[in-house]
Amino acid sequence: MKNKPKILIVGGSDAGLSAALRIQELDSSITPTMVLADEYPNFSICGIPFYLSHEVPDYWHLAHRTRSEIEALGIEVRTSTRAIAIDPKAKTCRLRLLNHSEEEVQYDKLIIGTGAESIKPVIAGLNQPGIFTLRWIDEARAINRYIEEHRVRSVVLVGAGYINLELADALTKRRLQVTLVERNPAVLKTVDIELGRMVEEQLAAQELNVLPRQQVDTITRHSDRLVVALASGKELSAELVIVATGARPETSLARSCGIELGEGDAIKINQRMETNVEDIYAAGDCAETFHRLLGRSTYLPLGSTSHKQGRVAGENAIGGSRQFHGTLGTQVVKVFDLVVARTGLKDDDGRRFGYDPLTVAGEYWDHKRYYPGAKKVLIRLTGDRLTGQLLGVQMAGAAETSVAKRIDTAAAALFAKESVDDINALDLSYSPPLNSPWDPLQSSAQDWLKVLAKIN
Ligand SMILES: Cc1cc2nc3c(=O)[nH]c(=O)nc-3n(C[C@H](O)[C@H](O)[C@H](O)COP(=O)(O)OP(=O)(O)OC[C@H]3O[C@@H](n4cnc5c(N)ncnc54)[C@H](O)[C@@H]3O)c2cc1C
Question: Sign of the C-alpha dihedral, residues 130, 136, 141, 147?
């Protein structure tokens, strides 16, 4: 019988596990080995805010599968094991175990899924008790412990991207007084400022303190409180500070063997997830992302993308020829009762990549107005003036207005590279309590075409 390939996967989160599952699905006689630096294989990092809010009662509920369930699928799992160097000529990978001993393992194919790490901004006094970054389950558990042990009543969140917005909601549910500090003019810079302002209104309605255009200079401790000094001279005081100002790809292992980096200093890969080093693949937050609309690589680290890339890497590592079809940067976040979502390009992205974008905004009922409970959805639709191609859509609405699914319709249209006009032809569902004969996305496409006709 032919020898089965030795597949080594570094990383046990979305990308690593997706690769392992795909290998098992295609050839159950292969036992891939998955090594991970921490103790949490197949945990949902995306679920951390909901553990910290206590909507998810304990951290271990965030495991999609337990370790024994993964092992029962035919995947060898090695936790608390860090891969520290690769020798591509000898096809070996050096591992450091919890007791600091080292071991060399052989591979035929290697998949790197080492994820990303939190960016630590330059703030004096950042390394003190009570100040945390948030990415790993261990960090989430430490924050939870700190809140309980120190009876924390107030928190300053530095950075107002989607992670800290989810945390603002979560920690308000824990009855903490929340202050959000953001250096940009509005929160959630991944969407246009108009949507960012809607999020700010939502936060203000919940009596949160939101401070845009503010930069943190220093943090000092005064007995049980942390004093956060802003560049403007203002001072904030809280028992807890959480810094979430972005993430950068974790590429130290890849660099150990000369793997080339690309966009965003992430591992350069092709659409088969191959790196420039033979028999080594990369997927997830450590790697670049092919952008479907732009036809080029970008860095857009997301859980949804990591799963897909991992699956492609797994399939190709055992002889497949699957291509990753690309991302559109589709994202959604729920902040209290407001859901904000985007897919594709905004005006400024479009311009940067050589389009002639036109964005038209409108508000549309989520279902027929005569049926109780109708609410408006704000849509900002961006298309190219010259070609009429759909470039991107942003949406915001109350949680009941199905914004998360409505953005997916737009994402599907973008995936198919449709024009704005094509959206009107989509056969979308209608019943008065749920939608209108023209879905809000279609009404917005019609408004975009009207505006275009006026200005042309
Ligand atoms: C709080 C939070 C909320 C989020 N919410 C969402 C969301 O709602 N939607 C969404 O799409 N995305 C979300 N994300 C992003 C999403 O979690 C990431 O895109 C996803 O986890 C990336 O998966 P990954 O497998 O590439 O890497 P990671 O999840 O970063 O995992 C990396 C893995 O590699 C291991 N590792 C690293 N270095 C080594 C080494 N040298 N040796 C061995 N093992 C190593 C780690 O232990 C870990 O197992 C969120 C992120 C955070 C932090």
Answer: positive
Q: 399 CA distance to ligand 1 centroid (A)?
A: 26
Element (H, E) at 48: helix 48-52
Q: Which helix (H) or strand (E) holds 361?
A: strand 357-365
Cα–Cα dist 432/365, whole Å: 11
DSSP-assigned states of every residue in 408-428: HHHHHHHHTT-BHHHHTT---
Give tens-digit pLDDT for 39-50. Answer: 999 999 999 999
pTM higher than 0.85, yes or no? yes
Summarize pLDDT for 2-59 with one digit per residue, the tens.
688 999 999 999 999 999 999 999 999 999 999 999 999 999 999 999 999 999 999 9
Cβ < 6 A, ligand 1 pocket: 10-16, 35-38, 45-46, 48-49, 82-83, 113-116, 134-135, 163, 250, 253, 284-285, 301-304, 306
Quick check: is 286 catalytic? Answer: no
Between strands 154-158 and 131-133, the pairing is unpaired
